UniProtKB/TrEMBL annotation, chains A, B:
PANTHER family the UniProt entry points to: HTH-TYPE TRANSCRIPTIONAL REGULATOR BETI, HTH-TYPE TRANSCRIPTIONAL REGULATOR RUTR
Coiled-coil regions listed in the entry: none
Highest taxon listed in the record's lineage: Bacteria
Record bears the keyword Oxidoreductase: no
DNA-binding region coordinates: 38-57
Limits of the HTH tetR-type domain: 15-75
PROSITE patterns with a match to the protein in the record: HTH_TETR_2 (PS50977)
Protein name: HTH tetR-type domain-containing protein
Organism, as annotated: Paractinoplanes durhamensis
Pfam family, one: TetR_N
Keywords: DNA-binding, Transcription, Transcription regulation
Length: 198, 198
DNA sequence: GTTAATACCTAGTAGGTACTCAGTAGTGCT
DNA sequence: AGCACTACTGAGTACCTACTAGGTATTAAC
């Protein structure tokens, strides 16, 4: 009886557990949104109890924050890596779309949260407002000098990308996101001067 | 103490109450999504109890269905009225956008539900899949003969419209949806032949 | 081997969830 | 005035919600 009990639940180092929690939460929010997310479901998905989960993230809002911060870091890293030193907005958008086409769950997470967080009392409201502004500012900066209305075009590019992604998510089997975007890009970048480098 | 209690709550005819329920629900779903919607909140918003509410809609799913059916009927009526006998896709899109610019709550309702319902077990999943298909088929039919790839263009138009609307919803004070769309339309309809009538 | 840190647990709180049942009170018809 | 209809209520069911307090068991450091 002094045998160590065979536990189903492993005790993990904090970083590892945190990573697992973020993965599970990402999937669940993509399915149900933040309002539809329950701590119990996340805990179950990680094989621990709710207080065990709360030990790592503090609260439900803290959990959401953790997910978003993780994604930000991850996306930034990956985009820098994929893009190299290009400054062609078209190339950068293409890289973004290519990456997204391999992670529909993440894209869905953002689609759902983006819509949910339109209302000001959503815990991710400020985050998404800032994110949208950043995206457009960044795009606009890259377009400056290559088109008469960089801001206006930046908004259209972002809108078209988001819209196409939702369309793709509804029917990922029949629609290929990258192909769709290539066609759309021919269209929307038509009047943009190519980068000076060639 | 045997005095009849002064009631705050009026007894309404079914149609009228139903209409009120739909209005309140529309607002609440736009704010919290369907997963975040509670029957209690809807009942409170209508000044009745939860069982009183359930008397009219049967269940929470029934409530959602009622809202969507009402919107379908309403949108169809209004669009036919606004468009008259035009068959210009550009005119029809403009009419749609003009209408939407006056009902941000409704647009938000659809934005949130559209994203939420991407997952197959959402009660509105089928509804939105069909809706998207209808939109694109309708647009594509209008574009046929006026552009080389009607289906592809229809998808882009729908995507751009949806994306711009979300962008607008995030900042309705600073952005004017109609202006934004006009600029986008100049762009996206550039290669579309004008209707044969002129 | 002892100590300190910590990953995680059990038990409990206070309240919210959709929904049912059986009855009441207001309304229209005759 | 009486009757049928129905909009609506109060009470209750079975369960889920985020979160806390306080403790245990595992690991790492020395």
């Amino acid at each position: 009886m002094t045998q160590p009990i065979r536990r189903e639940r492993a005790r993990l180092p904090a970083a590892e557990r945190r990573r697992q929690i973020i993965d599970v939460t990402t999937r669940l929010i993509a399915e149900r949104g933040f309002w539809g997310l329950s701590m119990q479901d996340v805990a179950d998905g990680c094989g621990l109890t709710v207080p065990g989960l709360l030990h790592h993230v503090g609260s439900k809002d803290g959990l959401l924050l953790a997910v978003l911060e993780h994604r930000d870091a991850e996306d930034l890293r990956s985009l820098n890596e994929a893009v190299g030193d290009t400054e062609s907005p078209r190339e950068i958008c293409a890289a973004l779309v290519r990456r997204n086409s391999w992670q529909p769950e993440i894209v869905r997470l953002f689609a759902v949260l983006e819509a949910e967080s339109l209302t000001p009392d959503h815990p991710a409201h400020d985050y998404f407002a800032a994110r949208q502004q950043n995206t457009i500012d960044g795009l606009s900066r890259l377009l400056k000098g290559r088109t008469p209305d960089p801001d206006g075009l930046a908004v259209k590019i972002a809108a078209l990308m988001d819209g196409l992604q939702v369309h793709w998510l509804r029917n990922p089997a029949e629609i290929d996101l990258v192909t769709q975007w290539m066609a759309a890009a021919d269209f929307i970048f038509r009047d943009v001067d190519p980068p000076s480098g060639g």
